UniProtKB/TrEMBL annotation:
Gene this protein is translated from: Tshb
Native source organism of the sequence: Trogon melanurus (Black-tailed trogon)
Family in the record: Belongs to the glycoprotein hormones subunit beta family.
Stretches assigned to coiled coil: none
A Pfam entry, by short name: Cys_knot
Chain ranges passing through the membrane: none
UniProt-recorded name of the protein: Thyrotropin subunit beta
Extent of the signal sequence: 1-18
Subcellular location: Secreted
GO cellular component, one term: cytoplasm
Database matches in CDD domains: GHB_like (cd00069)
PANTHER family hit by this protein: GLYCOPROTEIN HORMONE BETA CHAIN, THYROTROPIN SUBUNIT BETA
Length: 134
């Protein structure tokens, strides 16, 4: 029985990364400009989910290569552009946003990802809302 538990533990550690739940997930972005009359709600996909990490409490005992703090991030993405309605002629009414095509567990790249999750909710509209399905 104990050899079965040891094998199960080893398989779980070996394939834990492959079984992580990091995948494209539906998300709604709310976009508005001060000059425009409407807020645009854009349905898109982002990378979200669980990635296997290793606790860094034992960092003095382990090699740096064995310590990892992976996040669910973009493997492949494309950009789409939406038109914000109700903008005056002197305002650029376009908004470009990333769309997750595929995701991976890896290091967070601050060039295109927000690596800090804040508790403050800022994704809402203060103006009348229009829905954009892309």
């Amino acid at each position: 029985m104990s050899s079965f538990l040891v094998m199960s533990l080893l398989l779980g550690l070996t394939f834990g990364q492959a079984a992580s739940l990091c995948a494209p997930s539906e998300y709604t972005i709310h976009v508005e400009k001060r000059e425009c009359a409407y807020c645009l709600a854009i349905n898109t996909t982002i990378c979200a989910g669980f990635c296997m990490t290793r606790d860094s409490n034992g960092k003095k005992l382990l090699l740096k290569s064995s310590l990892s703090q992976n996040v669910c991030t973009y493997k492949e993405m494309l950009y789409q552009t939406a038109l914000i309605p109700g903008c005056p002629h002197h305002t650029i009414p376009y908004y470009s946003y990333p769309v997750a095509v595929s995701c991976k567990c890896g290091k967070c790249n601050t060039d295109y990802s927000d690596c800090v999750h804040e508790k403050v909710r800022t994704n809402y509209c203060t103006k009348p809302q229009k829905l954009c399905n892309m």
